[in-house]
Amino acid sequence: MKWAILSDVHGNLEALQAVIADLRREGAERIAFLGDAVGYGANPNECLLLLRERTEWMVAGNHDYGAVGLTDVSYFNPTAKAAILWTGKRLSPESRAYLRGLPLLRKVAGITFVHATPHAPGEWNYIFTFPEAEEAFRAMGGDLAFIGHSHSPLILTGKRDGKVTLYEEEEATLEQGIRYIINVGSVGQPRDGNPNAAYGVYDEAGKKYLLKRVPYDIQTAQKKIISAGLPRSLAQRLSEGA
Ligand SMILES: [Fe+2]
To answer: What's the 63 CA to ligand 1 centre distance in angstroms?
Structure first.
């Protein structure tokens, strides 16, 4: 079974369409979405519809819940807050109902799929440091979790003795007896210095993981953000991957 794992689309329809075309070429049989369909980009309803159509299932991100009043957005920075208010006003009643019904975490075939952390998904914490990674491994059931949220791809490994290692690698063959938390990066707003859309492919049979990067029509996504009246910095950052 070959999975395509997508996260953090953030209303960027051009990036999502490019990724969907690419994962077809990869022969992915199941598509999982790790949250943040909306927020920042100009096409929240369109992205949500396309994700609903193409993915097997989705979990909620903080922007998805934030846009429909299910999580506090007072800690969002001013730009993110402006975007989430804009998004909240434009969501269709159907989109709104769908976002409100999303779960925080899914476990399928022993694999955890979650936006933020496997142990406290609704607290929207990040896993950036060794202590954060150690806590996540201690509390996580199973050997493999896919996450998003930081928009930066990362492979974390946890050994039985508790030793954690962070790799900024783009591929890995998963070994028996080692646990993994893999951040698949962001489709719609990468922040690792590479502006191409990112998503993960996991081949269960060969235990092989690969991060894919897909060029897309960034200029059109930027023009839409500006003409929608969203903060201009949200357009600018797309060409920087920041
Ligand atoms: Fe996000």
So the answer is: 7
Confidence bin at 90 (pLDDT 50/70/90): very high
pTM to 2 decimal places: 0.96
- Strands 2-6 and 197-203 come out as antiparallel
Cα distances (Å, whole numbers) of residue 106 to 86, 118, 146: 29, 10, 10
Half-sphere exposure of 77 (CA within 13 A, CB side): 5
Q: Are 213 and 66 in contact (CB under 8 A)?
A: no
Q: How far is the CA of 177 from the centre of ligand 1 (A)?
A: 31
Please write down the HEC assignment for all residues of 163-223: CEEEECCCEEECCCCCEEEEECCCCCCCCCCCCCEEEEEEECCCCEEEEEEECCCHHHHHH
Instruction: Give the model confidence (pLDDT) of 95-133 as tens digits.
Output: 999 999 999 999 998 999 999 999 999 999 999 888 899
- How many whole angstroms from 10 Cα to the centroid of ligand 1? 7
Dist. CA 212–CA 2, nearest whole Å: 14
Q: CB within 8 A of 84, min separation 6: which ones?
A: 39, 63, 66, 67, 73, 76
